[in-house]
Design a protein that fits this description.
The complex is a heterodimer. By secondary structure, chain A is mainly alpha-helical. Chain A has helices spanning 2-14, 16-37, 39-63, 75-107, 114-117, 123-151, 163-187, 193-206, 221-226, 231-243, 252-278. Chain B is elongated, with a radius of gyration of 25 Å. Chain B has two domains: 33-251, Rossmann fold (3-Layer(aba) Sandwich), CATH 3.40.50.300; 256-325, Alpha-Beta Plaits (2-Layer Sandwich), CATH 3.30.70. Classes of the chains: A mainly alpha, B alpha/beta. At the A-B interface, helix 1, helix 2 and helix 5 of A face strand 7, helix 2 and helix 3 of B. The structure holds adenosine-5'-diphosphate and magnesium ion (MG).
Chain lengths: 280, 342
């Protein structure tokens, strides 16, 4: 009996990481199946926000002669400058929505997360899966912005793409956003989550260097400092560097370091939050 | 010596082995073992140094009133509640040290409906199989087989919200056993069900058990414990107060049984006759009661025919006869001084 016990454990341990990866893969398959079922809603959800953003700021405003972000003479620059911000806001908004909102139900009354929490892996595996799932949807949301900015603005958008920055930053931004979504979804009581959208998500998106480079906040030094706790600032600064030239942006080293620190910090906090939720 | 065939099933393969085991072997494989298992919430001790063993192949019942600690115990066995102290093993795996490995050995049917509402009926099974390492093809096949077996095949494409309570419960049982766990743990599985669905679920559990599935269920329903469980642990205030088969518990702790007989005519004469007929010892008493008499003792059922013939011999008319046997209810009352029902 003793031998059998240890044999069982040893066998499973030796394959554990591979096993966990397979479980995570299967869980992602489940999320994808759910997404496929609601594909139409997903597409609307993903398109609506960037479309309205781009439509109002880069089509309506120039047409009615309202200049935004640097004055009427610079509309071209503004529509170009805004692209990075819209990509960033779509990524973070979508990830939070994709991760935090379903958890309201799954952790709440129905406890339907339970079957997934009982899948053969530790609780952190489920956290990793949720973050990845949110990140994948967020990347999709980010990509969708590009065809929109190609067709909607009244004045042409001129992007100067630095592919290396773009290809590294988009997934990193998506993962940071996923951890943020999971942090919200696991630490905030399910009934309070809608409130959290007002208290956390709106400030993050409005004060996330979406419409202007962070450097242009210099006239308001206190605000310039405070917004540094906002991960969206780094995402947008990085994306602006990846998509435009001639617009000031934060030193890229700081951008990467900040995003990595946010990933580790929020990742740890959200894993802890999920563990607390699934193991009483 | 006893010869038996045991089927050791892992996710990857099924091994048939013929084992020769000493019947007295104390370590016949245990489905669940808990050692001094304890859970406290603040100053509240929900489960108090509980020792428990579920043998492989048995249906084990935790019977107790609301708040006894049944759900918490089940939670600790199934990785969902972290013990404050003590150990718990499932299929030989330490649940606290190796939760991921332990989950392979655990099938859970929680008290509430936890089906994945974003998926339809068959997808609930299919993805469960995928989480447990089955290939797409294998998972689909096993899901179809299970739906057939649990009489849900015609509803496979429905959303789970379209299932009745009984069907949802069957689907949860199917999901729980899909990965061939060492133990199936059910928390008050029939508490929300109509009588018919309850009977159907008992049938299912018995059938699974006869195929070798070890089962641990919690219940506050005596009938369920009585009819379904090989062994019952009576639980209150986080502790197991008594353990045994239903018959053992009733025999040892159920107190006396009584035979109540109502007759018309001279009861005293009958009592005297019965005193002679039945060699009454200190354990069996005959006392007069309204319109008749009452025989109190152990195993008074065997006295029915003597009592009736004696009455007839005296030309007394017996117009009512009832036997009150010990029940798990009386066992619980004897143990706690309280009633089980709330
Ligand atoms: N999460 C919790 N926090 C605080 N107390 C709890 C918690 N879960 C259970 N309890 C308490 O522990 C005791 C046992 O509860 P439980 O295991 O649910 O009993 P049962 O399932 O037998 O009704 C009860 O007194 C209950 O109030
Ligand atoms: Mg309970």
């Amino acid at each position: 009996m003793k031998e059998t016990m240890s044999q069982v454990v040893v066998r499973d341990r030796s394959v554990s990481l591979l096993m966990y990866a397979r479980v995570i893969f299967a869980l992602l398959g489940r999320d994808l199946a759910v997404l496929k079922k609601t594909a139409a809603f997903f597409v609307i959800r993903v398109i609506m926000q960037p479309f309205l953003f781009v439509f109002v700021f880069t089509y309506v405003f120039p047409k009615i002669g309202q200049g935004v972000g640097g004055g009427g003479s610079k509309e071209v620059e503004f529509s170009t400058l805004l692209v990075a911000g819209v990509v960033g806001i779509s990524i973070i908004f979508q990830a939070i929505q994709a991760v935090a909102l379903p958890l309201v139900q799954e952790f709440g009354f129905t406890k339907e997360i339970e079957d997934r929490a009982l899948a053969p892996m530790p609780a952190w595996g489920l956290a990793v899966e949720k973050i990845l799932s949110g990140a994948i949807q967020a990347i999709f949301a980010g990509i969708v912005v590009f065809p929109i900015v190609l067709f909607v603005p009244a004045t042409a958008v001129h992007l100067q793409i630095n592919w290396i920055l773009l290809i590294t930053l988009v997934p990193l931004a998506a993962i940071v956003s996923g951890t943020l979504g999971l942090t919200i979804g696991t630490w905030i009581p399910p009934t309070q989550v809608p409130l959290i959208f007002a208290i956390i998500v709106l400030p993050i998106t409005f004060l996330g260097a979406v419409y202007y480079p962070w450097a242009s906040l210099t006239p308001i030094p206190w605000l310039k400092d405070i917004v540094l706790v906002n991960p969206l600032v780094y995402i947008n600064e990085g994306l602006r560097a990846a998509l435009t030239t001639g617009v000031p942006h934060m030193n890229m080293t700081y951008v990467y370091i900040a995003l990595l620190v946010f990933t580790i910090l929020l990742g740890a906090v959200s894993i802890k939050g999920l563990q607390k939720r699934v193991v009483g | 010596m006893r010869l038996f065939v045991s089927i050791i099933s892992t996710r990857a393969e099924t091994v048939y082995c013929i084992c020769i085991v000493e019947t007295s072997d104390p370590v016949a494989k245990l489905a669940v073992k808990a050692v001094k298992l304890t859970k406290t919430y603040g100053s509240k001790v929900a489960v108090d140094e509980l020792d428990m063993e579920v043998k492989s192949g048995e249906i084990f019942g935790l019977l107790g009133p609301n708040g006894a600690g049944k759900t918490t115990t089940g939670g600790m066995i199934t990785t969902r509640v972290l013990p404050t102290s003590g150990q718990v093993y499932v299929g030989g795996v330490d649940v606290v040290k190796h939760p991921a490995e332990a989950k392979l050995e655990i099938g859970v049917v929680p008290q509430s409906n936890t089906l994945d509402r974003s998926l339809n009926v068959i997808q609930n099974l299919y993805f469960h199989g995928r989480y447990f390492g089955m290939s797409r093809k294998q998972s689909k096949q096993v899901a179809l087989d299970l739906l057939e077996r649990f009489k849900l095949a015609d509803r496979q494409s429905l959303p789970v919200s379209a299932l009745s309570g009984g069907m949802a419960q069957r689907l949860m049982v199917a999901r729980a056993i899909m990965h061939t766990p060492a133990v199936l743990v059910l928390d008050e599985p029939t508490s929300g069900l109509d009588p018919q669905s309850r009977l159907a679920l008992w049938d299912i559990l018995q059938e699974l058990n006869s195929d070798g599935q070890s089962v641990l269920l919690t219940t506050h329903n005596m009938e369920e414990a009585d009819g379904l469980c090989d062994r019952i642990a009576i639980m209150d205030h986080g502790k197991i107060l008594a353990l045994g088969s239903s018959a053992e518990l009733k025999r040892d702790l159920g107190g006396t049984s009584s035979l109540v007989m109502k007759v018309s005519g001279d009861v005293r004469q009958l009592i005297q006759k019965l005193m002679v007929e039945i060699s009454t010892d200190s354990m069996t008493k005959i006392v007069p009661s309204d319109d008749g008499l009452k025989i109190v003792g152990h195993d008074v059922a065997q006295l029915i025919s003597i009592a009736v013939t004696s009455a007839e011999a005296l030309s007394l008319k017996v117009y009512d006869l009832s036997l009150v046997e010990p029940s798990l209810e009386t066992v619980f009352i004897n143990l706690t001084g309280r009633e089980l029902r709330d």
